[in-house]
Design a protein that fits this description.
The chain is α+β, with helices and mostly antiparallel strands. The chain contains four helices and 16 strands.
Length: 215
């Protein structure tokens, strides 16, 4: 067995060649022990030690995963978890399911989850792979087959292939419910449907205005 793999097992307090389930369990246990949140009220020395330890644990687990010593399988339910500066996912048993390589992560909705890489958001599948590249400033979750995304300072909506179904033109955009979503254009709030047809209400008189008349 390569020396670097032996070192990884040692970091996780395991004997070389330990079973995949033992590796997952040891990883979860050590993350809980050394998570920086447990040391937030301690002095800087202890917090920094916790961060170093957690980095070693994450690196060791990642190397074992790359080597094939850990097979992830297909969990029934995934939950985002902060592993100390990096976000990943655990399954319904608490075992790690997606390696913590994200700056932030949210729950899966309609089979996809919003995840942040460096400063941009995209969407991942249950394997942890980006199916929509992280290029958005912000984003909402999927609802009725589309998700709101902020692109160059304006909000629009994309489908599951990453294509804009409603072009980014709004100052704010909420999730679709029953075929309509609330959006803000300028100082006014209104509604838009999946065809991109928007209706706004003039504040003073209550008269309805089309989005085109407000552009």
């Amino acid at each position: 067995m390569p020396e670097d793999l032996n070192h990884c097992y040692n970091v996780l307090d395991l004997a070389p060649g330990a079973a995949a389930e033992d590796i997952k369990a040891a990883y979860v246990d050590l993350v809980k022990v050394w998570h920086p949140d447990r040391f937030q009220h301690e002095n800087d020395r202890l917090r920094q030690r916790a961060e170093r330890q957690l980095k070693r644990i994450n690196e060791a687990y990642g190397r074992l995963r790359q080597s094939g010593a850990v097979t992830m399988g297909k969990p029934l339910f995934l939950t985002p978890l902060d592993f100390g500066g990096n976000w990943g996912y655990v399954d319904e048993t608490g075992a790690p399911a997606i390696y913590p390589g994200f700056a932030a992560a949210r729950l899966f909705v309609e089979g996809l989850a919003a995840a942040k890489l460096v400063e941009k958001w995209g969407f991942i599948n249950s394997d942890g792979d980006f199916v929509m590249n992280p290029v958005y400033d912000e984003c909402g979750d999927f609802s009725e087959g589309v998700a709101s995304v902020k692109w160059y300072g304006r909000w629009g909506y994309v489908d599951r292939q990453g294509c804009f179904v409603i072009q980014p033109r709004y100052q704010a955009a909420r999730a679709f419910r029953d075929g309509w979503a609330e959006v803000q254009l300028g100082l006014r709030w209104g509604r838009v449907n999946l065809a991109g047809e928007a209706v706004f209400t003039e504040q003073a008189s209550g008269r309805q205005l089309s989005a085109e008349s407000l552009s």
